[in-house]
């Protein structure tokens, strides 16, 4: 897709704002978006011009009126691929994995959680928000049958690398890593590290002078 990570992060926030607007609100200005997110208005306009070029949609704002909400929302969705469904497994049925399985808004952004996996015999066979928990040994077979290439990894840190090795060997090509372990995987496997602690520390240190 080629969209810079920081731009993607801001675009998702813009989309959250558009989702919250009432049906009768037809327009929104870049100033309103900027004020809500406490960022510079010029940055919002730059981002919106960027997705206009990427999506080939005319979202040109009207002077003193703003951007048409439906057109802007559609352009963001096309640019970020929200409408292209991506099936995924959650590997690790603990507290975090269970919480992610219960997050139904994933579907709004094209992420479809099909099933969960764990090695804990007490969890296997249980159902969390409509997703059955299978034995980890079945991940390769089910991934092949269902055409799944992506896994969300939420196992304890000490099991993360071993589990990642197993997933790579089972044919998974994408791992969204929620563990604190830096994974060493084959070159054909892509990893996205979700740094929850880093985000927390950025927030708590945001008002401190460097």
Topology:
Layout: H1 5-20, E1 27-28, H2 30-37, H3 41-55, E2 67-68, H4 69-80, E3 86-91, H5 95-101, E4 111-118, E5 127-128, E6 131-135, H6 139-146, E7 150-153, H7 157-169, E8 174-177, E9 190-193, H8 196-204
Parallel strand pairs: 3-4, 3-7, 4-6, 7-8, 8-9
Antiparallel strand pairs: 1-2, 5-6
Descriptors for this entry?
single chain, 210 residues, alpha/beta, Arc Repressor Mutant, subunit A, Rossmann fold, 2 domains, two-stranded antiparallel ribbon, 8 helices, 9 strands, 18% strand, elongated
Question: Could you give a short description of this structure?
Answer:
The protein is 42% helix and 18% strand. The protein has 210 residues and is an alpha/beta fold.
How would you explain this protein's 3D organization?
The protein is α/β, with parallel strands linked by helices. It has two domains: 5-79, Arc Repressor Mutant, subunit A (Orthogonal Bundle), CATH 1.10.10; 86-198, NAD(P)-binding Rossmann-like Domain (Rossmann fold). 42% of the residues lie in helices and 18% in strands. The chain contains eight helices and nine strands. The protein has helices at 5-20, 30-37, 41-55, 69-80, 95-101, 139-146, 157-169, 196-204, and strands spanning 27-28, 67-68, 86-91, 111-118, 127-128, 131-135, 150-153, 174-177, 190-193. The strands form two sheets. Strands 5-6-4-3-7-8-9 form a seven-stranded mixed sheet, sandwiched between helices. A hairpin with a 2-residue loop joins strand 5 and strand 6 (131-135). Helix 1 packs antiparallel against helix 4 (69-80), helix 2 crosses helix 3 (41-55) and helix 3 packs across helix 4 (69-80). The longest helix has 16 residues, at 5-20. The radius of gyration is 20 Å and the shape is elongated.
